[in-house]
Amino acid sequence: NAGVTQTPKFQVLKTGQSMTLQCAQDMNHNSMYWYRQDPGMGLRLIYYSASEGTTDKGEVPNGYNVSRLNKREFSLRLESAAPSQTSVYFCASSELAGTLGDEQFFGPGTRLTVL
Amino acid sequence: AQTVTQSQPEMSVQEAETVTLSCTYDTSESDYYLFWYKQPPSRQMILVIRQEAYKQQNATENRFSVNFQKAAKSFSLKISDSQLGDAAMYFCAYRSGGGSQGNLIFGKGTKLSVKP
Question: For B95, which residue in chain A has the nearest alpha carbon?
Answer without folding.
Answer: A98
